[in-house]
Structure formats: structure tokens, C-alpha cells
Task: inverse folding
């Protein structure tokens, strides 16, 4: 099954839970049950399990076939954004301490074995990071660090605890490893411009592949490493752009005049890109899962796979 899990909830209904969308047939199937919203789903590399954060701020796993979920963490501080290591042995995630319901006062990078054992705190400094990216060898995690108003990319070795600061410009964020682990793509702001850049995994050899006055975020590598898809625009009016990894080509992928396209995810074969399309007109602030070919053709909107808020949803294809 070519599926992508996502969070869905109907306006005025119970909190959103996970569903699986078959991109070929359009069929939607419910995966998880329980109280509270289920957020940030992440497939295990073998496609057997999905990790997610539940409404009480704990990391859970559920089988890709559905059924009862299993809670892995039991922490007083909310845990979010689980990410599987490529070898499937560990999960990295974020622990967010909040003041009230909205203000984040500290974010720590955590890791544990895939069964919930071996819990480790990898960082203790304030972090603005919301995403984590693993290296191909499952040894390193890259994340965004910095005080309020600044951000740089850091990497930490899961096995040794060694940390490296990869950028020093105070504006780099959204770092993501290429599939082979040799390079990291990221975005930054430089002199009233926004840049999509690529560097070697050790932070050297930075080269810019896209520079624009339009804000950029959420870069994602194609499986073959030749292309990057990136969100361009503000939170209320954005589209997807396709940029070659050597910087020689870029093109508009999803022109959108009625809302916002975001959270892109490549299919394993690199043929299609799933994303979230938010419609800001009718009904207000609603959203849908969509897919499009990398060539910019074959747009398909799954209007029945409806999202009713602007939660941090990143559709993920089944490996």
C-alpha cells in the first residue's frame, strides 16, 4: 500500500487521530484511537510501525495495520516530533517545557530505543527546533539551536554525545540530511534575502542553490538527491518550489492563489510529492492532503482527507 499517515479531525468533533490514506485509491482508514490529539506521525523504516505524540504529550507507537497503540514515554514534560533512525533501532524526539499552554521555555533533544528503553537526554540548552533529521548511518542527528531570535544548525552523535556546531550565521534552520548522509540542506536569511543552501555533513562547503526575497522553509530531498522541494511564501500564502541540488534549475511546482501549500514529502520512488494544502477562503482555514508529480503534473486533491486546523502535520509515505 502506498500510504501516508496524517492527523484528521472534523470541526466540532472529537480530537484528531491518525488516519492512513492510500494515495492510489484515495481510501482513508483510521489507525489510532484514544483521548486527545495524535500528532507528528513517523513511519518506522521497515513500514511496520508509526510513532506519534499523543494528547498527553507522550510518544506512542501503533502498527501500520492499525490496532491498539503502545505508550513508550512516561515523562512529566510533553514529548513531541518522534523520528526513527534509519536502522530502526532508536527514536529521537523533542521534550518541550512550556509556560502556560503556548510559551516554550526549553526544548531538549531526547533519544530512546524503539521499545522505549534506554532513554537519554542529548541536549540541555534552549532550542527553537521543531524538526530532527538523522544521518544515513544512524549515528548523527541534526537540529536547530539558539536563543530567541537566532538559530544555527547543530549535530550530535547519538553514540558518543559529541556535538558540532555546523553554522555560525545566526539564521540557519530546517536542516535535513540527504538520503546518503553526505550533505545537509537548510534555509537561512541573509541581507534581506532567503536562501536554500547545501553543505557537507561536517558543515564545510556551503553553497547556495536558491536565493529569493520570498521566505523559504521545510526543504525535503528527493530520494536520488538530485532535487529539493521547498515551501516558499508566508504562512497564509505559500507554494512549493522544486530546486535542483546543483542550483542550476528551479521552478514553481504548486501555484496557489487561495491558500497555503506546505509540509512536502517525497514518495519512496521519487515520482510524487505529498503535501498539505490549506484553503483560507471556503471553508475558513480548512486543509486537505494533496499529491503532485515531481514534473508538476497530475495534481490530486483528496478532499475527503480533510484537516481542520494548521497543526504541524507532515504527511509521510510508507517506506
Result:
Amino acid at each position: 500500500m502506498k500510504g501516508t499517515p496524517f492527523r484528521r479531525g472534523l470541526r466540532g468533533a472529537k480530537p484528531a487521530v491518525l488516519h492512513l490514506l492510500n494515495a492510489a485509491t484515495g481510501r482513508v482508514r483510521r489507525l489510532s484511537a484514544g483521548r486527545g490529539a495524535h500528532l507528528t506521525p513517523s513511519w518506522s523504516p521497515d513500514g511496520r510501525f508509526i510513532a506519534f505524540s499523543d494528547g498527553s504529550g507522550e510518544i506512542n507507537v501503533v502498527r501500520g495495520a492499525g490496532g491498539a497503540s503502545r505508550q513508550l514515554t512516561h515523562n512529566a514534560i510533553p514529548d513531541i516530533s518522534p523520528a526513527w533512525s534509519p536502522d530502526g533501532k532508536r527514536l529521537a524526539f523533542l521534550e518541550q517545557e512550556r509556560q502556560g499552554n503556548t510559551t516554550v521555555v526549553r526544548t531538549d533533544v531526547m533519544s530512546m530505543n524503539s521499545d522505549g528503553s534506554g532513554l537519554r537526554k542529548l541536549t540541555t540548552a534552549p532550542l527553537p527546533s521543531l524538526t530532527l533529521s538523522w544521518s544515513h548511518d544512524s549515528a548523527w542527528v541534526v537540529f536547530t539551536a539558539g536563543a530567541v531570535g537566532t538559530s544555527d544548525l547543530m549535530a550530535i552523535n547519538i553514540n558518543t554525545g559529541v556535538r558540532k556546531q555546523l553554522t555560525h550565521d545566526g539564521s540557519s534552520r530546517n536542516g535535513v540530511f540527504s538520503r546518503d548522509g553526505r550533505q545537509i540542506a537548510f534555509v537561512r536569511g541573509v541581507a534581506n534575502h532567503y536562501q536554500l543552501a547545501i553543505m557537507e555533513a561536517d558543515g564545510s562547503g556551503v553553497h547556495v542553490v536558491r536565493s529569493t526575497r520570498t521566505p523559504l522553509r521545510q526543504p525535503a530531498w528527493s530520494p536520488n538527491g538530485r532535487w529539493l522541494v521547498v515551501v516558499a511564501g508566508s504562512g497564509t500564502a505559500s507554494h512549493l518550489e522544486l530546486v535542483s541540488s546543483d542550483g542550476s534549475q528551479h521552478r514553481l511546482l504548486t501555484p496557489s492563489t487561495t491558500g497555503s501549500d506546505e509540509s512536502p514529502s517525497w514518495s519512496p520512488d521519487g515520482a510524487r510529492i505529498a503535501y498539505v494544502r490549506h484553503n483560507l477562503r471556503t471553508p475558513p482555514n480548512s486543509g486537505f492532503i494533496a499529491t503532485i508529480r515531481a514534473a508538476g503534473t497530475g495534481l490530486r486533491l483528496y478532499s475527503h482527507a480533510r484537516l481542520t486546523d494548521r497543526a504541524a502535520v507532515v504527511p509521510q509515505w510508507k517506506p
